[in-house]
Amino acid sequence: MKCPYCSYTESKVCDSRPADDGEKIRRRRECLKCGRRFTTYEVVESTPIVVIKRNGIREPFNREKLINGVFRACEKRAISIEKIEKLVDNVEYTLQSSLEKEFKSVYIGELVLSLLKDLDQVAYIRFASVYRKFEDVNSFLEELKNLNK
User: Fold this and answer.
1) Which residues partner with 60 through β-bridges?
2) Pairwise CA distance, residues 112 & 106, whole Å
3) 95 to 14, 59, 113: CA distances (angstroms)
4) CA 36 to CA 23: how far, in whole Å?
5) Quick one: DSSP state of residue 18?
6) What kind and span of H or E run contains 96?
7) Of the chain's two ends, which shows fewer C-beta atoms within 10 Å, N or C?
8) Are strands 58-60 and 50-52 parallel, antiparallel or unpaired?
9) Cα–Cα distance for residue pair 83/9, rounded to 1 Å
């Protein structure tokens, strides 16, 4: 690790401890040339997830966008933000643990729907109505019939 003070490349680790609930390792280092101490963080490198939209455009996976969409579907329901974040964590974990790094938005939407179905059926219908672009009452009724099966 390069010293931020003298740019020497040799240092020793004085202290290591977990940070951010074990997501990072915080290390205190001492430069072997100037003797000054500095802190570094070690994180697991992850490959970015790419979403292929319905129109073919590719864009980076946006966790906040997904949280906002699920949150809107769960408005005025007895669903905590922690449960919404856990649902999105599950989606993100499923995507990260896959060998693929590009996913069609349709696949992600269906994944969200499968998790919402178990969490709250009203939120499920709300999300499905936007995601599947219901155009009339019959579309709603058809989804409700499928939900009751």
Assistant:
1) 50
2) 10
3) 37, 15, 15
4) 26
5) E
6) helix 81-96
7) C
8) antiparallel
9) 45
Cα Rg for the chain, rounded, in angstroms?
A: 22
pTM for the structure as a whole: 0.64
Tell me the C-alpha distance between 74 and 68, whole Å: 10
pLDDT at 119: 92
- For 102, phi then psi, to 5°, come to -125, 130
State how far the Cα of 35 lies from the Cα of 16, in Å rounded to an integer. Answer: 18
> What average pLDDT score do residues 10-39 get?
93
CA distance 26 to 53: 38
Residue with tokens 């001492």: 30
Phi, psi at 62, each rounded to 5°: -120, 105
Of the listed ranges 7-11, 17-21, 38-42, 55-59, the least confidently predicted one is 17-21
